[in-house]
Design a protein that fits this description.
- Helix 1 runs antiparallel to helix 2.
- The chain contains 3 helices and no strands.
- The protein has about 70 residues and is mainly alpha-helical.
- It has one domain.
Length: about 70
């Protein structure tokens, strides 16, 4: 789960950098949207494992601690 969250954050960081630099194309936005949607599905699946009791809440919160949003 932690690796997925980190990867998801990386996808968004890349998109934000492209948009701010003015170098984002429609193709870039579509590609990033597709990757982001895939990562969201994976995160939702793993989150379900935590909320269904397969993993502990402490493990889930520990994974989330490493993901901190940066200001835009």
């Amino acid at each position: 789960l932690l690796q997925l969250l980190i990867s998801e954050q990386g996808v968004m960081d890349t998109l934000i950098q492209q948009v701010l630099s003015g170098n984002a194309t429609v193709g870039d936005l579509r590609r990033v949207n597709k990757v982001y949607a895939q990562k969201q599905r994976q995160v939702a699946r793993y989150t379900g494992e935590y909320t269904n009791g397969r993993q502990t809440l402490e493990q889930f919160l520990e994974a989330l601690m490493y993901i901190t949003p940066e200001p835009i």
